[in-house]
Hints:
The chain is mainly α. The protein has three domains: about 15-420, Up-down Bundle (Sodium/glucose cotransporter), CATH 1.20.1730.10; about 425-510, no CATH class; about 515-545, no CATH class. Helix content is about 70%, strand content about 0%. The protein has helices at about 5-25, 35-45, 50-60, 65-75, 85-105, 115-130, 130-155, 160-205, 215, 235-250, 255-260, 265-285, 285-295, 320-325, 330-365, 375-395, 400-425, 430-445, 475-500, 515-520, 535-545; strands at about 465, 470. The protein has a two-stranded antiparallel sheet with strand order 1-2. α13 packs across α14.
Amino acid sequence: MAFNVTGLVVLVVFYLITLATGIWAAQKNNKEKSKKPSEIAMVGGRNMNFFVGLFTATATWVGGGYINGTAEIVYLPSRGLVWVQAPAGFALALLVGGLFFVNPMRSKHYVTMMDPIQETYGNVMASLLFIPPLMADMFWFAAILASLGATMKVILDIQSYLAIIFSAGTIIFYTLLGGLYSVAYTDVIQLVFMLSSLWICIPFVIMNSATESIAHTAAHSSFQTPWLGKLEVHYLGRWLDDLFLLILGGIPWQTYFQRILSASSTKQAKLLSYLSGVGCFVMAIPSVLIGAVAASTDWNQTRYGLPTPSERGEAALILPLVLHNLCPTYVSIGGLGAIAAAVMSSGDSALLSASSMFAHNIYRKVLKKKATEKEVLWAMRLSMVAFGTLGAIMAFYSHSVYDIWFLGGELVYVLLFPQLFCVLFVPNTNTYGSAAGFFIGFVLRLLAGEPSLKITPVIRYPGCSLVDGVYVQLFPFKAVTMLVTLLTIISISYLTAFLFKRGILPCEWDICKIKEDCVLMSLPRRENTGGCTKIEELRANVSVM
């Protein structure tokens, strides 16, 4: 395949437009001088335009992994449309988030989703609980960069590592300059381009002579099994497990809370959450159609030939393969631009998310408690470069876009969602419960195994079976692990509070200072007052532990 110079030029032009938009949006920071620079960078000064916020909230979820993964699952003979759960799962996650999580998060003017956790459980647990969302953002960033690299290799015939490096560098640069403003305004351009480009490709792929009617192949076998797919009874537990992972595990992401905290009012934040869920669902339609076309195509009539993509192990590349082989060259280049836009719209959000939590919750509140606004901004920028570089390196070694995308979400679901739920909705949970829940949840998830990391399960839940040499858990073990984590946090919190408050355990053992009397006894007395430190000062001291 010849090197596609025209395609590369078009792509470079698109990247330059995106970069120029990001630089222009960064200038809005100068109009917000009355507000904290760090809050402008992290939550847009809490005054984001509603329509811009809606575009950026939708674009955040609709990344390269989303559109590529959706097409891949529809196409796979062993899966099909019935296994495409992300569109409905994310839409429901944003609905649940709007109904229950917007009010408590906005009422206390939080900056990140880690704020209520840090406020309740202290700095040590907050630092530990920062690890799952950091890993999730890095997996997410790596997955979408890998999908773009693979796509450019197919359509432009350039090495994937060049695409990864170039894309990562562009994303880091404009996100570093303008923070949320740059991310939000570039998302508008990217989402519009993504939607228009993919829909332009649809008529060409459906009407190609090598493709049979997708209405017929939905329920009838032609070149492979029907693309609607089939959900067998013994797979129901796994199907439900993945669905709940998307719904509940889709909430505790800083990228989501960054958008609802940037809205100018609670009403707008809720509406933004609901409508972006609808947008996520609609944006999946082109990918579903492309996956259906791939399952309905006689690949022997195309330049791709036989064996088919699934037989060659290239199902993860099905979207770019369809665009390249079933569309005219100029149309497939537009499709490539759509994928590039999807990658950039989610990649910048992942970087901003991780760097915001590091700068605000780790650097400002743990490493340097008297940091100036300028120091916090530099911590954010430097961490953005570090996290972006790490994500790009990870992208070189990712093999399955969908697996690595799911893996990051699992860590957030089983470890972080119970913690966030407890601090917002369960009164009087404490650090002991938080620590116990974290370690028990982590161990249970690890013992359940992970095929993508070649970790053999130690705990084989009911229905665990060996498929092609790999153990597959069919029991909803992720939901069970999340519930065990949740119950552990609550039960250990109330148990330790009871033991200390009743004097069954001595105050000297209360290292987390959950009992106020124990804290008072441990604090030095003032020479001139003859009494203990005031409660207000006490709470200020406890809050930084």
